From TrEMBL:
NCBIfam families: eda. The lineage of its organism: Bacteria, Pseudomonadati, Planctomycetota, Planctomycetia, Pirellulales. Keywords: Carbohydrate metabolism, Lyase. It comes from Rubripirellula reticaptiva. PANTHER family: 2-DEHYDRO-3-DEOXY-6-PHOSPHOGALACTONATE ALDOLASE-RELATED (PTHR30246:SF1), 2-KETO-3-DEOXY-6-PHOSPHOGLUCONATE ALDOLASE (PTHR30246). InterPro entries: Aldlse_KDPG_KHG, Aldolase_TIM. This is KHG/KDPG aldolase. One of its GO terms (molecular function) is lyase activity. Homotrimer. Pathway: Carbohydrate acid metabolism. Belongs to the KHG/KDPG aldolase family.
Amino acid sequence: MTDQADFPPELIARIGNCAAIAAVTIDDADAAVPLAKSLLACRIDVMEITLGTPVAIDAMRRIRDEVPEMLVGAGTISNSNQVSAVIDAGAAFGVAPGLSRNVVLESRQCGLPFAPGVITPTEMETAIDWGCRQLNIFPIEPIGGIKYLRTMVMPFEHLGLKFFVSGGINPSNMTAYLYHDDITAIGGAWIAPRSQIRTQDWSTVIDNAIEAASIVKEMKPR
């Protein structure tokens, strides 16, 4: 396995420009397209669809076909068999809450940019040894928030690592993360909560997305 980063610079730039990824769980594939359009209208053009429901792959496929302007990532990739499925459905990248060598290897083999989940220095060292340079820090708030993150990554700052951070992030604390250049984006489950997607409450989703995009604009002017 090489030391080359598996996220190309143009993909990092695209995700970093959005900076607030809508992390969503979709129970009805019919909700996928209106959800993507609602987010896109508010300048949230990157979303992560978790693989925790039977319709997740179909939801990705529908967004790929009907809302191609939306960049879709696959979340909660937990086994290597899911890698080819999310690629076929149009996923541009993958994220996981944990660190699986099999998933890292399969993603590298198939060409899927993949950020494994880490939360300790030992896990970071392992991911680095496996050639990963874009990491997912989860769950960040329960483990100590931005202070924990800055302390944990300090010994690795010379490596030029980039991070997604998620778990307990909301409008009141997201600015603390967006301030740091090595944080590519935050994951926001609050932008489009599962309950609002189930009821297709797009007005609430739009309100949340507007708030997230406004905070990003203030912190990272385009």
